Amino acid sequence: MCASCIHDDDSIKDLWSIDKIEDMQAVLLNWFALHGRHWIPWKLKPNGALPEKLEKLPVYPIWIAEVMLQQTQLKVVLPYWKNWMKAFPTLVDLAHAGDHEVLLLWQGLGYYSRAKRTHQSAKKLLEIIGSNNSLNPLAWPVSISTWVDLPGIGRTTAASIISSAFDLPEALLDGNVKRILSRLIGNEQSLSRSSSKLWSLSNDLLDYDSPRNFNQALMDLGATVCLPKNPKCFCCPWKSYCCAYYQGDPSKFPMKAPKKALPNLVIGIGIVFNDFGEILIDQRKPDQTMGSMWEFPGGKQEKGELIEDTVIREIHEELGVHIKVLQNLIEFDHCYSHKKLHFVVYICKLSSGIPKPLSSLQTKWVKPDDLINYPFPAANKYMIKALQDYIVPSKEK
Fold first, then answer.
1. For this structure, is 66 an active site residue?
2. Rounded mean pLDDT of 10-34?
């Protein structure tokens, strides 16, 4: 049996000596010094240099990045973070921004409730810190409890902010770390059942002398070496300590709960024009999924219903108008975490009626060129692109 394997009733401190843990810390930190992602912009000082031990970093850009990184990869987050920092360079700028501006900057990043909660948190943080102190790291909260009381901040996000900004010893457990630790100990439980054990392990392994670098080393190891599929065990600094490596099949860890089949829905969408060449859009209510985002009207196809009839029915139910379906614009699939959608999008013409927000917050007639000024859910970018391609040839006729 691998000496690193820990079972349900075992503790790391019972099985691993202090010397072994210190060796693992040193090995990982040495690897990080050579191979870590030292270019991540919010991990650097304003002059672009790496921080010294215990040196404090600006908290605001770290906080924004950590929220964006929730369930989203670094390569996706980077351009959004850079655009965000240009638009809202300080906490004060964000707290005073309008909801519309915030959602527009978040558009395409997904999980839109994060944007609204971040905006809410900015206002609360400004009350705690004060406008005059917002650029001073010493004025920002350093306790886990204060951070997790803010909307959209969990234990891992709070720990990552605190360890990154202040170099304070707070263990974390993001997706990368869960995978590393599960493989390290040969965790035979699902992640949902072993959360407490993994938190304890993360805390026991944490290097209290270099928490910022240690936590970042763990995340970098998971992002570049201990990958979900085809892990690069040959260059892993912890392979000699790893139970999954010893067993010869690291990819089977962490154990996965059986996946539930996602429902497949067909969604009919109408891009409705009026006589002035304007397009009808409506805004979701704040308490709805993807609240406050704008969209083209439409909805779910009912059993036995023609998709063209779906578009006509949904738009009448949602907006109280009658339309004529003219032609198919685009069809495509789009997956969310809880469902799969097949969109069928039509060019339509208003026949009669004045749009009323019967199930939305408000409606608007907008010129096609002005659509970029409204925050839409990610799936709508395909519709807008197809619409642009449709309009250009029409203008040339």
1. yes
2. 86
